[in-house]
Amino acid sequence: MLLTLFITFFKIGLFTIGGGYAMIPLIEREVVERKGWISREDFLDLLAIAQSAPGVFAVNISIFIGYRMRKSIGSIFCALGTVLPSIIIILAIALFLGNYRDNRVVENVFKGIRPAVIALILTPTIRLASKAGLNKWTWWVPVVTALAIWWLGVSPVWIIFATILGAILYYILKLRKA
Amino acid sequence: MSTVVLYLKIFWTFFKIGLFGFGGGYGMLSLIQNEVVENHQWISNSEFTDIVAVSQMTPGPIGINSATYVGFKAIENAGMTRTEAVCGSLLASFSVMLPSFILMLLISAFFMHYKDHKSVQTVLKWLRPVVVGMLAAAVLLLLNEENLGTFSADNLQLYVSIGLFALAFVATYYWKVGPIKVILLAGLFGGILYSIL
Question: What is the ipTM for the molecules in this complex?
Answer without folding.
Answer: 0.78
